[in-house]
């Protein structure tokens, strides 16, 4: 049953169009390339219309498949992922397949077939077949001689890379050896400098010790010489009062000399050679003798019980100049010995020790 095209098709009935031609009912042309579009396959009442709108004919499912292949080969439609799937219901056109043209005569399809033949023939190229890499780029498969040449080139490249690597290693080893040599030289120089500094320090220390030893020996010799010219004022005594000791019994408030306690009448000797400057009574000092040395130092011997020298007399070391007593301001027999240097009273004990006299 024929119905207007605007109402669509049902079952397996052929579709009719306003121009009065029944689809696939005759071989009238001309034949044109047909590309399905969204408008041509728009669903109507839950079904889809398949037809030619500009004086053409609706095609069978075979023609539609060939047309799609041709359109894809020509790059004329979008991919399936760009559009939603559209169901198409087609009538049974098995009876009209004999009236369809050959696929090779369709526009675009013949070129695809010829291109496939050429591609098949291309496999017979001498020794080289074309393959497609994963990225779409052609990869050439070489012949035996070409593979051997490529292997030789690769081996040469590998050898050159290895030579460069060995050269870099040799340079690094040489640099490391040079650095180690420089470090060794520097360490040796520092060690030598340290040894030299240590040797100089030891030499300076030895020199200092030698000088100190020489000074000590010189001082010992000087003291020994002085000891021969200086002596203690008494041969036997006891130190009873030292210089500077405080006390109310002394007018100055402190003791001005060094007291040698000894029995009355014990001989008093001249400590060093000199000239008698004073000899006689001297108030609180009792009998007193003063001897002046060559350097101007004055030695005073006080509280004597008797005197053996007079003023202006020259005396020598060890000469007896008087005897121990307790005259003047005295609490018992003793020799009160004083030393004046530069007009000032000094410690007699320190002065005697400085002259080599042990007390």
From TrEMBL:
Residues 198-213 have a biased composition (Basic and acidic residues). Gene3D superfamilies: Glucose Permease (Domain IIA). It comes from the Bacteria. InterPro entries: Cell_wall_metabolism_enzyme, Dup_hybrid_motif, M23ase_b-sheet_dom. Residues 254-348 form the M23ase beta-sheet core domain. Pfam families: Peptidase_M23. CDD domains: M23_peptidase. SUPFAM superfamilies: Duplicated hybrid motif (SSF51261). Residues 1-48, 79-125, 189-213 are annotated as: Disordered. This is Peptidoglycan DD-metalloendopeptidase family protein.
């Amino acid at each position: 049953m024929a119905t207007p095209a605007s109402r669509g098709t049902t079952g397996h009935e052929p579709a009719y169009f306003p121009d009065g031609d029944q689809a696939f009912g005759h071989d009238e042309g001309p034949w044109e390339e047909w590309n399905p579009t969204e408008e041509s396959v728009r669903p109507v009442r839950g079904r889809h219309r398949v037809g030619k709108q500009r004086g053409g004919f609706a095609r069978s499912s075979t023609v539609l498949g060939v047309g799609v292949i041709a359109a894809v080969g020509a790059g004329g439609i979008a991919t399936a992922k760009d559009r939603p799937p559209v169901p198409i219901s087609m009538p049974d056109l098995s009876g009209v397949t004999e009236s369809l043209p050959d696929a090779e005569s369709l526009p675009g399809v013949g070129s695809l077939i010829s291109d496939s033949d050429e591609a098949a023939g291309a496999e017979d190229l001498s020794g080289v077949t074309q393959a497609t890499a994963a990225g779409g780029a052609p990869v050439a498969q070489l012949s035996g001689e070409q593979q051997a040449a490529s292997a030789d080139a690769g081996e040469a490249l590998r050898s050159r890379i290895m030579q460069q690597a060995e050269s870099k290693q040799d340079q690094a080893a040489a640099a490391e050896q040079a650095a180690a040599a420089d470090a060794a030289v520097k360490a040796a120089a520092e060690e030598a400098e340290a040894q030299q500094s240590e040797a100089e320090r030891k030499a300076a220390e030895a020199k200092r010790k030698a000088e100190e030893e020489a000074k000590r020996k010189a001082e010992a010799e000087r003291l020994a010489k002085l000891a021969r010219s200086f002596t203690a004022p008494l041969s036997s005594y006891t130190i009873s009062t030292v210089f500077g000791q405080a006390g109310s019994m002394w007018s100055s408030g402190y003791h001005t000399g060094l007291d040698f306690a000894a029995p009355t009448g014990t001989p008093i000797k001249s400590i060093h050679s000199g000239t008698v400057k004073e000899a006689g009574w001297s108030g609180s000092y009792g009998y007193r003798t003063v001897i002046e040395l060559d350097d101007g130092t004055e030695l005073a011997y006080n509280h004597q019980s008797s005197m053996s020298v007079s003023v202006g007399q020259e005396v020598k070391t060890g000469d007896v100049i008087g005897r121990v007593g307790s005259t003047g301001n005295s609490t018992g027999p003793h020799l009160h010995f004083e030393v004046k240097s530069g007009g000032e009273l000094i410690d007699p004990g320190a002065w005697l020790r400085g002259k080599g006299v042990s007390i």
